[in-house]
Amino acid sequence: MIQREMKEVSLTIDGKKIKAKEGEKILWVALENGIYIPNLCAIYEKMQPSASCRLCFVEVEGEDEPVTACTEPVRECMAVNTRGKIALRLARTSAELLLASHPVNCGHCLKNRSCELQKIAKHLGIKLKTKRFRKLERNLPIDESSPLFIYDPNKCVLCGKCVWVCQEKLGIGAIGFTRRGFKRMVSTFQDKPIGETTCGQCVECVKVCPVGSLVFKNDKRVE
Amino acid sequence: MKFDEIKKQAQSRWREIWNDQVPVILVGTATCGRAAGALEVLQAIKDTVKKQNLNCLVYEVGCMGHCYAEPLVILRKPGYPSICYGHVNPVLAENLINSFILNGDPCLEFVLGALEENDLIPSFSDFPRSKYEQRILLKNCGQINPEEIEHYIANGGYENLSKALQMKPEEIVSEIKRSKLRGLGGAGFPAGDKWDVCRRSEGEPKYLICNGDEGDPGAFMDRAILESDPHSVLEGMIIAGYAIGARHGYIYVRAEYPLAVQRVRNAIHQAEEYKLLGENILGSDFSFDIKLFQGSGAFVCGEETALIASIEGKPGIPRHRPPYPALQGLFGKPTLINNVKTLAYVPHIIKNGAEWRLQIGIGKNKGTAVFALAGKVVNTGLVEVPMGTTLRQIIFQVGGGITKGRRFKAVQIGGPSGGCLPESVLDIPIDFDSLQESGAMMGSGGMVVLDEDDCMVEVARYFLDFTQKESCGKCTLCRLGTKQMLDILEDITKGRGKMEDIETLQELAEDIKQGSLCGLGRTAPNPVLTTLRYFREEYEVHIKEGRCPALRCQPLIAYYIIPEKCARGCDACVGTCTIEAISTDKKRRIKVIDQEKCVKCNTCLAACPPQYDAVIKLSPPDRVPKSEGK
Asked: What CATH class does A8-92 carry?
């Protein structure tokens, strides 16, 4: 864990009185105190939050608009509401959008019941099969070239945790983001199968994947 | 060399040109001119001058703003006012030289206008638009050779830099603050405040970036300034660099502007030669250099954090702000980033003082704004008007109204981040705040005029298609939300829309606007939100009746030949139809379109002679009489 500023502040999250280190982001303070805020892309060690999943919206008293909890530092006397109407609306839209482009045949997925997306849907009270949006399938080929794990880009939520581990934390750089817009995905240099790259099979990426996009081949639940 | 000496030298060179002894020929060769054939005209002029062995000067200038009449040529003959000719082609150019320069006949029938007021020829100041225009940023555009630094200096250029270097940096910042200069790249953030934060923030070296990554479809103001008067931008950059204490500057120009890139590169080189850039500028202790950086085609790189990432050699993808670049920007150092026009304003403020600028414009919006007028408007081109001029004045007075006598329908302002405004709001003053309120946005200044033949759903679809493709894909709401919106809009334009789609569209647009990570996502829904706000019934008609009122959405229209109008013996449509969908009904001696075969390519409609005008579009397609078309 990285040392951050030591001065302590008092604040409330959902009415609960909490003491936290000044400058710490709301998300981590809330999680530490047992208050769940949906999130996919947040990494504690990462100094510059990527703020890309748009799920951790909370409302702060005195602010016009909801803020992302992963980027907003706590302040003295701050009053945070994680169940605010607008914040939940934005989070629900983001989650529904992710679910609309995510295969939800969860019964066949190795991550069933340990999937962050399922947890988020439950927390936000939304169905896995969203009616509001169209299903956007990407139909990308599944990469089984690694001896240890399977990469299914169709299930990827682009949280960037695997990329961060591989590039920043371990300095390997076997995987990274490619393409733009709806086509953005995690891939390898020249889209080569992962088994034919500099990947050393450390499987750290598999460990951090919040959904069933990166899973172990020897998982007990393999059909 | 002291600045006075540089200036003296430049002025004497300038007088060699404008001395009323030799004729001078100016050809506008900015991109707008080149697209219309200005380089061929220039070549023809050079050939003619050589052939006739004339003693006259020929040089290239930038964009004069009258893009509708390109290629433009200005002839200046001693004893006459400077005359500007429009729509010049190589043959006309040769004739003009022969008739006017050699024989003194100014060929009035080809004259667009004279530059100075005179008794002989109507001047530009007699144009209705001159009442509204106020050229500050565009003052030099089309008047000086952008590739000659001396032309710029002789017209007062770099004098303000010399003046600014005598001032204290904080004096300059407070002058900019007092002038109420706001970022002209679109968002309108007070420039002085940004400068102040950057000047006070700690970290060395500081950087200055000029954002010339103009990417909105239909916008070309920054390009015109960079191509026509690059030194004004450089001068503004150097002054800004001095004011905030920056050591290095970058000018970020998109690679799709090759001429701007070439002229900026040349301008930097010349400024370095004159010691206006580099170590100890004009003998002061201030050192500053400017590097040219070419953008690689990503629209999102116009967003400041993405632009910075791209200079750092990383993928051009925005990051969360704060920290703002003024505190933590390029390579983690304090960075001031301003648009081309914002920086080009700086020398004028130094020259005339903040009070001068406060007298132009209205309310909190001071100064002028430059707009690129495009679309279905008579006088397309560049316009510079004081803030607070109304949309109606720009479109109908400056722009000369709608082409082909059609009816005005909407004006799309601010590009993909902006909105479509209908006739009912044409009288709002153009400024950052009023436009924001109307749901549009000042944006960079693109203004596309739409007439009754444009379908608003299709326009919204077009812009969503653009932002969807240009979204970097980092954040969920923009990546997936714009894709969902685009799919809905596509369904509506194809007649597959449902009424509940409108509601989904509205909700989604509002959420994306509020929740996206960067400015691209936060403004991408604007075309949808404004068309829903002002043209909702058009969406409903598409969905409920399967009809496109503008007859634009192909799946919702059918081509039909009116039997009464069809000239029996004419075969024009039959001949042009490449898929042979039109046949002759021998019994009734008329032409009939086979609706099953027709691919709606519009060729028959274009081919039908105007005196018959028998081919029409019908929407919905089932309006074609049943007996026909089978």
From this structure: alpha beta
